[in-house]
Amino acid sequence: AHSFCLDDNSSAPVLYGWGRNESQQLGLPANVKNVFQPTVLDGLPFHDDDNDDNSVVMAAVGKSHSVLLLQDSSLWAVGANKSGQCSVRNFQDVIGNWRKCVLPEEVEAWVQIACGEDFTVALSSAGHMYSCGSSQYGQLGNGETGEYFVTANKLAYANCHTLERRSTFCHAPNEKLHANNDKSAKVVPLPNSSDILIQQVACGKHHTLAVEAASVNARPRIFSFGCGDYGCLGHGVQQDEYFPRMIGVVDKLPLGYPKDTQQLPVKAGAHCSLFRTPTTGHVYYWGKHRSVGEATMRPQLVDVLANNQHVVTSMAAGGQTVICSTGLAQTVSWGQGPHGELGMGKAKSSSKPTFVETLNGIPVLDMAAGYGHTLFVVGPDDKSSAKEVKEINKAVEELPQIKEEDLEGLED
Question: CA torsion 50→53→59→64, rounded to 10°?
Answer without folding.
Answer: -70
